[in-house]
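Review this chain:
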Amino acid sequence: MIEITEEFGLNAGRVWRTLNSCGPLTEIQLIEETGLREKEIYAAIGWLARENKITRDNGLYRLDETNLNTEIGEDAGKIWQILSTEGELDTIHISRLIHRDERSIFSALGWLAREKKIQLKRTK
């Protein structure tokens, strides 16, 4: 069984390979080309942003130095602060606390997973 953090990294590799072979793609195209679900794409984007490998311009993602540090990095910082004080929380609770949508939460979790700052558990 693969742990979720490892899964995020594998999915990030899948997104990277897809962008490397196909060029710039929208989120919908990334989902179609990779076969990943939305949450998995968002976490992979966060992981790649932390690695400074992905950028988004006019709704298209491509491989390049990231321009997502402010957006994803700030959300990751907020989540890190909350988890440091509150302990274990689910994504719905985190979303309510920082007033961000699911896309933002999963991107930030991908960022934090790449930094090895969090442990994720899959719920049923």
Observations:
- The longest helix spans residues 4-22.
- Strands lie at 54-57, 60-63.
- The first strand starts at residue 54 and ends at 57.
